[in-house]
Design a protein that fits this description.
It is globular, with a radius of gyration of 16 Å. It starts with 18 loop residues before the first helix and ends with a helix. The protein is mainly alpha-helical. The chain has helices at about 20-30, 40-50, 55-65, 75-90, 95-105, 110-125, 130-145, 150-155, 155-160, 165-175, 185-190. The chain contains eleven helices and no strands.
Length: about 190
């Protein structure tokens, strides 16, 4: 099987539980006049647009955020690099995505760190580097055992390595661990296609 880079579109960037909250946050941010938005608001808007599959709009928001005061602060710059990396990976520009992730990974913390590592695993899969992706996923499972994001991405490697039965077992385990996460049923549906 060949890894489909559209999988990275399922990587949720926001900390919100569902699409309704993502849409609500997007509307709140869009209500702020563009000229008055802070770099943090543009960053949050880029996150919501990525979550809604609007990569081009997210790139515009990232560019606007980078142009504002405060964007050069290390934490903000690293989060912007993460968002741009995910956007570039969605455009199959794996080299640029990897460069941005490696540049910022040492400074990212919490969920942003997990998302960056998962994006790197997705890039490795996209480049058919299954062993590297597997090693990264094994490390992430140890480092972040309670992460729903790691649990969600875990079935992707076995699926694209040809072990669909194992992938479906991991999806079922994930659904039990995080029953309110709609990504698991979506993953199961795609795996059954």
């Amino acid at each position: 099987l060949e890894f489909d880079p559209r999988w990275i579109e399922l990587l949720v960037m926001s900390d919100f539980a569902g699409s309704g909250q993502i849409i609500q946050r997007q509307q709140e941010l869009e209500a702020v006049p563009e000229a008055q938005r802070s770099s943090r608001e543009w960053l949050d808007l880029a996150r919501t647009w990525l979550d809604r599959g609007r990569t081009a709009q997210a790139m515009v928001a990232i560019d606007r955020a980078r142009a504002l005061p405060g964007a050069a602060e290390a934490a903000t710059a690293d989060r912007l690099n993460l968002l741009e990396a995910v956007a570039r990976a969605r455009q199959n520009d794996f080299a640029s995505a990897r460069r941005l992730l490696v540049l910022s990974l040492g400074s990212l913390t919490g969920r942003d760190e997990v998302v960056a590592e998962l994006a790197l695993a997705g890039i490795e899969l996209g480049e058919s580097r299954f062993a590297d992706a597997g090693a990264r996923m094994a490390q992430l499972a140890v480092r972040f055992p309670d992460s729903p994001d790691v649990a969600w991405f875990g079935p992707v490697l076995p699926f694209f390595s040809g072990d669909q039965a194992h992938a479906l077992r991991l999806v079922a385990e994930g659904e039990k661990r995080v029953p309110d996460d709609a990504r698991f049923p979506a993953l199961a549906a795609v795996f059954h296609l």
